[in-house]
Amino acid sequence: MKRILFVCHTGELGGAEFVLIDIAAHCCSRCHVALLADGPLRAALEAKGVGVSIIAASEHMLGVRRDAGWSRSIRAVPATLSATCRIARLARAYDVLFATSQKAAIVAMLAGLLSRRPVIWQLHDIMSAAHFGDLLRRISVALANVTVRTVLANSQVSRDAFCATGGGRDRVQVVPIGIDPAPFLAVTDAHASTLRAALFPPNVTLIGLFGRLTPWKGQHVLIDALADLPGVHAVIVGDALFGEDAYRASLHARAAAAGVAARVTWLGFRDDVPALMRAMDIIVHASTAPEPFGRVIVEAMLARRPAIATRGGAAAEILGEAYPYLVPPADPAALAAAARRIMGLPAPDLSHLVAANFARASSEFSLDAMLEAVDRLI
Ligand code: UDP
Ligand code: GLC
After folding, report:
1. What is the residue-averaged pLDDT of the chain?
2. Which terminus of the chain has a smaller tally of CB atoms within 10 A, N or C?
């Protein structure tokens, strides 16, 4: 049995980190996680019996953003090398390095060279200009081409963007993200009704958007759509995880300016997503940039709620090309129209839609299948 050292650049709880929790919990007796920043992820991993070390990298490295130019990137080099040396030392006790993000991959790829350990990169991102700066994209893909055994792409769109940036197609394998259906199956209708009565106004249609607050997740598009959706109440679940406080403030101001503030409930980050999803009438995914995968779409399917999602990323892979509620990104009118169509569905059609989505999510995005694929590869 191979021993695995996972390398993750953040301690926050985003989708890629929930995937890490599932994979590390599955092999907890023979793995360890190195986090380049502390945060709630540490406790979540430890609660699953996974050992964690914080190899804190400085802000010079972690703070590099999409628009970083040469000088900002060069300033990140000493911090990157220092984290690399510490990871390489840790790696000597393991057989494989497994990186869970682009920043972690750079450190893991260099540490893999130093410690002569094979590296797997689970690619959770679309390597395009919408998500990454040109320089970082080129560096990580060039390094991957010479150091990484296998890139595990979370979707076909992520694989294609990696290859379009120069990544070797023979190195990439698509392993879709799998989600455990158990917490969704455990939610009873009674529980969902109690939650709904406790948190939201009565006699409204609830449309929920689940995801971290960041401009490309498109919370503003749902706020704008409310003007066209009388009787609808929006539920925004999630918080700014990576410093997007100005966006959070702008959302509140936007709702107030549009006169819809009383029709929005802001729940912040929640750890009861399955029950909350079940309490919604509709769940929207509103990302304005192509979504690399989109766990929340699969979760909406498992929660047996009708989903609306934006085209452009992996949504069509998840819901199917012909899914009738795929809408153009950044288009509040199209979002509102799709919501009105769902609200007008006769009950049997709605039941059929959510049953078909549930069946598809359980068979195509099974956690067991993802874990088996990762086991096979390791
Ligand atoms: N999530 C959560 N609490 C929240 C908001 C989101 O636990 O308040 C979870 C959500 O259920 C999903 C993940 O965060 O599993 C987000 O993953 P996704 O792939 O949709 O987006 P990402 O943040 O990775 O881009
Ligand atoms: C990333 C992506 C998201 C994906 C998740 C899990 O955080 O932004 O689309 O679902 O990783 O692969």
Report:
1. 95
2. N
- Residue 10 token pair: 């953040």
Which atom of ligand 2 lies closest to the CA of 314? 9
CB 210 within 8 A of CB 236: no
- Please report the pLDDT score of residue 69 as a whole number: 67
Ligand 1 atom index nearest CA of 297: 20
In this prediction, residue 127 has a pLDDT band, given cuts at 50, 70 and 90, of very high
Q: CA-based angle 55:244:216, to the nearest 5? A: 105
CB-defined site of ligand 1, < 6 Å: 14-16, 18, 210-212, 237-238, 269-270, 273, 293-296, 299
370 close to ligand 2 (CB < 6 Angstrom): no
Residue with tokens 């929006």: 234
Protein residue with least CA distance to atom 5, ligand 1: 238
Task: State the burial class of residue 365 (Cβ atoms within 10 Å of its Cβ: 0-12, 13-18, 19+).
Answer: buried
Q: pLDDT tens digits, residue range 79-105?
A: 788 899 999 999 999 999 999 999 999
